[in-house]
Amino acid sequence: MAGKPKLHYFNGRGRMESIRWLLASAGVEFEEKFIETPEDLDKLKNDGNLMFQQVPMVEIDGMKMVQTRAILNYIATKYNLYGKDIKERALIDMYIEGMADLNEMILVLPLCPPDQKEAKIAQIKEKVTDRYLPVFEKVLKSHGQDYLVGNRLSRADIHLVELLYYVEELDPSLMANFPLLKALKTRISNLPPVKKFLQPGSQRKPPISEEDLEKARKIFRIK
Ligand SMILES: N[C@@H](CCC(=O)N[C@@H](CS)C(=O)NCC(=O)O)C(=O)O
Q1: Which helix (H) or strand (E) holds 8?
Q2: If you take atom 15 of ligand 1, which residue's CA is the nearest one?
Q3: For the CA of 69, the nearest atom of ligand 1
Q4: 65 and 71 Cβ atoms separated by less than 8 Å
Q5: pTM, full prediction
Q6: Which residues, if any, are the signal sequence (predicted)?
Q7: CA atoms of 164 and 151, how far apart (whole Å)
Q8: Whose CA is nearest to atom 18 of ligand 1?
């Protein structure tokens, strides 16, 4: 039997957090090997473990997988969270690519120069309420079902709920006009594996601290 997937990344959300969410929601236990220093990253690179010299890297089923989307696609397919046919998958892909665009804006926010941060946050908030959340509220309203696609749990629900937690961290009032999204968040959060992942002490990562941001800048040599 294959061992637990092993996740190689720094001890923070970054690009690995959606992978943690997806594995945990599928009820899959995983190990983490944290990159603590630039030398740790160099070692992974020099040992030939990183196809593009980048992390996230996930050891799974005898592979050393890189590229966040490829990893997520593999996990979603393996655990049957990617729709029942190509049309459901197409819908899921459209939804999650939109979510990924918003997620990326939130992900890079800590790297924003302090004098531009306020404007950036305002821009993100506007996109949240005027572009992204209305799409998913409308989807739920249109079919009246408990999940975004195919009346059953898919990665689209999991990625969206992860994103809704970040939106709430940014400003809880952003969710005020989206009752169906709030209900989805509660429903998915109560699924036993997700509930477990949301408990304190799980492998879910908190918002990045200034100290960890500095550490990440050093590891990834970000100016
Ligand atoms: N497209 C890649 C981007 C990965 C990426 O940018 N990784 C950063 C850390 S979040 C990295 O490894 N930077 C080091 C480098 O590029 O040398 C993915 O989605 O996995």
Answers
A1: strand 6-9
A2: 54
A3: 19
A4: yes
A5: 0.97
A6: none
A7: 20
A8: 67
